[in-house]
Amino acid sequence: MILECGSVQLPLLNAAERRLRRHWKAVAGRYRTPYNARMMRLIWLAIVSLFVTIPAALTTIFLASIRSTSPRIDRVIRWWARSIVRAAGVELRTEGLETLDRDKRYILVANHYSYLDIPCIFSTVQQPIRFMAKVSLFKIPIFGWAIGRAGFIPIDRKNRRTAVKSFDLAAQRIRSGNTIVIFPEEGRSRERAMRPFQRGAFLLALKSEKTIVPVAIDGTYDVFPATRWHVTPGIVTIRTGTPIETAGLTLRDKDRLLEESRAQIQEMLFGTTEALPAMSSAPSPAPSADRP
């Protein structure tokens, strides 16, 4: 829509466009990290990931062989995650985490932009977290053995029968005292707009009668998106939405739970539940975290 003001035509912007234009204006005058520096950051991240993943995995395997539910496993995982976040030059911020009760267990549903999403959640959410992860990760020597022994849940979405078993296993993990994190997009989004949500997470919530908590991961798209193999240090904010209770609901409520969760995440990311404008598809320079 165009507004005429004398001889000047001004576009009327919706809330999402105004928010995005403010963001672009804020970063436009900031220091843009040179390409070589971003490649060096990626190399540094890869080196640190290698050197922290192997000892963390071996320690996890050892602890899990003694007691698979040992809280020390969670401390090892959190150390691993924070090491990777620091290596990427990420400054982590949080909003709304006080809504989570440390004595309760949840199903967290989050958007998925980057390989850094998982370390960022581990670093900020003080819960015994386990993820549902693609089955190929469990075949990686040492790392795959560790996440299997630690109670992470393999899922092969191409095989419906094994996928159903994976959700049964997830329900068992929740009963044993874990918070489960699921990316309902079932893969990293290659643009800023979220991919369609799948129903699995919400069926699991209904089956286990656990509270759903929408989580928005804001900033990893600019730091390390799926479309680029370099890392730009910046700010990542983990926002927690309003918990959605599932006790007493039936399978007929799954679509309502999906839409409500998606709407909350959309609102936390973009300030609106409206469709995201096309102008936001390309990664913008990440706000500098002023970290080495």
Structural write-up:
By secondary structure, the protein is α/β, with parallel strands linked by helices. It has a single domain, classed as Glycerol-3-phosphate (1)-acyltransferase (3-Layer(aba) Sandwich), CATH 3.40.1130. 43% of the residues lie in helices and 16% in strands. It has helices spanning 15-28, 35-66, 71-87, 117-124, 143-150, 160-175, 200-208, 220-223, 254-270; strands at residues 2-5, 8-11, 90-95, 106-110, 129-134, 153-155, 179-182, 211-218, 234-240. Strands 3-9-8-4-7-5-6 form a 7-stranded mixed sheet, with helices on both faces. A hairpin with a 2-residue loop joins strand 1 (2-5) and strand 2 (8-11). The relative contact order is 0.18.
The CATH architecture classification is: 3-Layer(aba) Sandwich
Low-confidence stretches: 1-10, 26-31, 288-292
Tell me the structural class: alpha/beta
What is the 3D shape?
globular
Count every beta strand, where a strand is a DSSP E run of 2 or more residues: 9
Largest sheet: 7 strands, mixed
CATH class: Alpha Beta
Cα gyration radius (Å): 20 Å
Alpha plus pi helix count: 9
Order of helices and strands: EEHHHEEHEHEHEHEHEH
Gap from first CA to last CA: 44 Å
How much of the sequence is in beta strands? 15-25%
Read across the widest sheet, the strand sequence of neighbours is 3-9-8-4-7-5-6
Integer tally of domains: 1
